[in-house]
Amino acid sequence: MSESPRRLSAMDRLVERLCRLPGIGRRSAQRIVYHLLQSDPQEATELAEAIRAFRVNLRACSQCGNVTESDPCPLCDDPRRDHATLLVVEQPGDITALETTGQYRGLYHVLMGRLSPLDGVGPGDLNIDALLQRIDQGRIKEVILGTHPTSEGDGTALYLVQQLTRTGVKVTRLARGLPTGATLDIVSKAVLGDAIQGRQAMR
Ligand SMILES: [Zn+2]
To answer: Does domain 67-201 correspond to CATH entry 3.30.160.40?
Structure first.
C-alpha cells in the first residue's frame, strides 16, 4: 500500500518526533509543544542545541559500552584499575551507583538492557557479543554479574553464565544482600558495597 507522504506542519512534525521518545504519548508531546510555543524562543533554541551537543559529543565506549565523551572512556583508559576483572551491568547509571561505593577497582561492561522475552528483547539486542570478544582477548580473569536482582536480571545472569562457560573465566554474581526487585541505582552505598565484597561464584 503506497501512500503519498503526508505534509506535516512544523507543529505536527515536532509532536510526531516527541511521540517517538520513550514515555511520551501524544498528549504529553502536545503539552511540550504548547509550552515551547508560549515560552521565550530562546528556550526552544537551547533545548535543540542541548540535544544536538549531547548526540554529537556522547558516544558508547567501544570497549565497555558506557556513555562517554572520549573513546575509550576514562574508566577503560585508567591504568590504575584492575583490567583482569569485569563487572557486567545493565545500564550506565549502574556504573555511577557502583563507583560511589569506592569498593570496586575493576572494569565494567554495559549490556544496555536485560533479556526480556515478553518485550521482545533477546541476546542479539544486548551488548553481549562485545563482552565475549573482550573475554576472548585473554586478559579477563573474573566476570562479576551485576544485573539487577529482578526476574529479568536473574534470567540475564543465567544466560550469561551459559555463554561464559566455554571461556574458562571465573564467574561471580553480586551477593543477594540486594533487595529483590531493586535496581542498583536506588540501593544504598553500604548495601551495594557489601554486595560487591560478598559476591558468589556462579560455577
Ligand atoms: Zn569504557
So the answer is: no
Q: How far is the CA of 76 from the centre of ligand 1 (A)?
A: 4
Rounded Cα distance, 183 and 105, in Å: 21
Q: Does the pLDDT at position 5 exceed 60?
A: no
Please say whether the beta carbons of 189 and 100 come within 8 A. Answer: yes
Note the pLDDT of residue 1: 47
Fold of domain 10-57: Helicase, Ruva Protein; domain 3 (1.10.8)
pLDDT at position 172: 94
Residue 45 CA to ligand 1 centre (angstroms): 32
- 158 alpha carbon to ligand 1 midpoint, in Å? 24
Tens-place pLDDT, residues 66-81: 999 999 999 999 999 9
The ranges of the chain annotated as CATH 1.10.8.420 are 10-57
- Amino acid making up residue 183: T
How far from 125 is each of 99, 108, 116, CA to CA, in Å?
A: 26, 18, 10
pTM of the model: 0.73
Distance from Cα 110 to the centre of ligand 1, integer Å: 9
